[in-house]
Amino acid sequence: MEINHSVLIVEDSEPIRRFLNQALKAENWQVFECDSVARALIETASRQPSLVLLDLGLTDQDGKEYIKEVRQWSNVPILILTARHDEEEKVAALDMGADDYITKPFGIPELFARMRAQLRRIALPSVSSVNIFQFGPVCVDFSNRCVKKGDAEVHLTPIEYKLLGELIKNVGRVCTQRQLLLAVWGPNYIEQPHYLRIYMGHLRQKLEDNPTNPKFLLTEVGIGYRLISKSD
């Protein structure tokens, strides 16, 4: 049986590790496990997994400490598995460098969809190395600074274009409000989330078929936004 990818499960609950292990191996994943931050750092460095599934409540430290440490030397996709419903906890983990999160309890189909999205994201060339990026009917031509929806050219303001570019750079990844405000407007605006709401509304009006029910420019309630290039 061909092994496609490897995953590191960092989870302190043995029943959850066992459940995930069985589900992932059934889909031809190579699986590694541990229950602590200290061991997770060793496993990440030695195994170099394709993706990490990380619980926040671990046996030795908070999982955010793993993110903080590993982001100094690795860009491995990190998907948070958490029973914590506090949005501030999720935002903190994402701001530290996690790529996505899923709240327990969760279904295996949703988990696999999130994992596939992260693998697609890292397989894409960086936005600085591509001339054309497409999602749905929208085509962004970076070399000519041109955006089209179908055959019609769409005029974006400089801020709208910069915001869209930041979302494209992080396609498939949850971007927190703080991350986007810092990248697009700068440090003086990180406490001004209404700017982001207004300009995301503008982008949806111009690029989505149904701005009130967007397919590509998605809201992560209380956290931020995510661009997906195609539905899973």
Automatic annotation (TrEMBL):
PANTHER family: KDP OPERON TRANSCRIPTIONAL REGULATORY PROTEIN KDPE (PTHR48111:SF50), REGULATOR OF RPOS (PTHR48111). Gene3D superfamilies: 3.40.50.2300, 6.10.250.690, Winged helix-like DNA-binding domain superfamily/Winged helix DNA-binding domain (1.10.10.10). Residues 6-119 form the Response regulatory domain. Keywords: DNA-binding, Phosphoprotein. Residues 130-229 form the OmpR/PhoB-type domain. This is Response regulator. PROSITE patterns: OMPR_PHOB, RESPONSE_REGULATORY. Residues 130-229 bind DNA. InterPro entries: CheY-like_superfamily (IPR011006), OmpR/PhoB-type_DNA-bd (IPR001867), Sig_transdc_resp-reg_C-effctor (IPR016032), Sig_transdc_resp-reg_receiver (IPR001789), WalR-like (IPR039420), WH-like_DNA-bd_sf (IPR036388). The lineage of its organism: Bacteria, Pseudomonadati, Pseudomonadota, Alphaproteobacteria, Acetobacterales. It comes from Commensalibacter oyaizuii. The modification 4-aspartylphosphate is found at residue 55.
